[in-house]
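Worked example (supplementary).
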Amino acid sequence: MHTPVYHLSGIKKFYNRHPAVDIKELSLHAGSITGLVGPNGSGKSTLLNLLAFVDSPSNGTILFNGRKAEPFSEAVRFRVSLLAQEPYLLKRSVYENIAYGLKLRRGDSSQYPKQVNEAMALVGLSPGEFSNRPWYGLSGGEAQRVALAARLVLKPEVLILDEPTAGVDADSARQIMACALTASREWGTTLVIASHNWKWLHEICGSVLQMFKGKIIGNGMENILFGPWNQGHDGYWEKALEDGRRIRVSTPPSPSSAAIIPQSFITLSSHAPTMKQDEHVLNGVIAQLSLEPATNTVMVSIRAGSQIFTLRIPQEKARETALFPGQKMYISYPLSAVTWC
Amino acid sequence: MNFILDGLFQAIQLLIRGDGETYSAVSATLKVSTYSMVVSLLVGIPLGFLLGHHDFLWKKHIRTITDTLMSLPTVLVGLLVYAFLTSRGPLGEYGLLFTLEGIAIGQAILAIPIVIALTATAVESIDEKLRITLISLGADKKQVFYSTIWEARYGLLAAGMNAYGRVLTEVGIAMMVGGNIKWHTRTITTAIALETNKGQFEMGVALGLILMAIAGIVNFSLSFLRNRS
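After joint prediction of all chains, the assembly is encoded as:
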């Protein structure tokens, strides 16, 4: 068994006494692609900053290739690179921005132009057109691609991408996604990617981690239902949807807790199922269907009021049931499957 | 109005004629302002970086004190430096009273809080994302410092210009610590004060215009450098 690139144990990060990240154990292996999903404020960026060693945990240790590491330690300085959600370009030309990391590494300076040009070509920017452009002469998508090129030129052992396609045009997003895969395929780079584009993540990632309130609560196959929850006349805890229907759950630890329902416990049917004891049935319409070739499954999003439930079914079953967007469906889940966060 | 116009002509005449007394005052002014600015930039920029870049206990209080010190009265600084440098003072043995170096010490005390406070503001205004970017590209602590300073260069330029303006135009310290000794510690500002007391308004205006010209040349030079970068 190889030593993992990362091994985190007992990691906690507090901001103003508020816990932003709380992870008991996590290992990431060399060459793997790991996705992070979760709502805004769930701790994804904080965890990525810790993995990139730009920030230190309040508690716990992070082992990098089996050795304890922290910001600025020599073991990680030239090996891990982070592309932040809104990258900062240095107040220099595009060429100087991309060459900055190379200069820090004090490599063969005669190779810099070639390396920079290759990185620019990789992200789809013409060196002739962009090399001498100042930092302020770029669109959002171009700036993001320059920032990515500045990381790719270093061929890092670990590349961490925080919402790399958020707020960029479709062409730039496509280019960025392709570059991430190139880094993984060509150089064996370990990738950690936080994104709301979970379709993309589930396509390319070996594992996806679902984060919520700073904790890893699953593998991205969970539905998170936010409170507040009220106790009904019949004693069940529930939340009213806009159209008057109710989502029923097990007893929450507090009315504002978030309910987590794993996809594997949700049953989908086109006819109203017989209501069983301690089971909840809800109807909705198919909002989205998408194929996930890596797992041969079809991801089905069911909209019930403002709440979206997501589940995956085998491709064969999807074909048999002839699902289509807009179709009315029923979902059911046992109340015992609901966990709380 | 005439004496102002006369002052203008006299200033040109003084410069063309190569008036020794005027050039001595200009030279003294340039020397003390250069000494004090070198010291205040060397001390103020690193301290301003620490204040703007790091979080630590009492940071807010130190920031408030530094901001307050930006408006130090020059006569108070002059008085304190005089008290330290006089033969009875703790630094009297160094014989710095009534020297250009003594004036420079006082002016550095005046300029350092300005450089610290404005550097801290410039560094604070830089996005936290710069630090993350630099570290994630492999910069060590020293490289983070230098690159942050470079990114904040326009703010630092403003800090330096502000401090230089204060140093160049102050009269209290130069008068009290320098003693306004002709051919020795007489600066342009103390010369203006003296000429005005003597009723020589034209000479005062002439020296004032020279002072403005010096400030203008320095400002234009820095603006040129800024535009080139």
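Two points are worth noting when inspecting this output. Chain B touches chain A at residues 127, 129-133, 135-141, 143, 147, 150-151, 153 (CB under 8 Å). The two ends of chain B are 42 Å apart (CA to CA).
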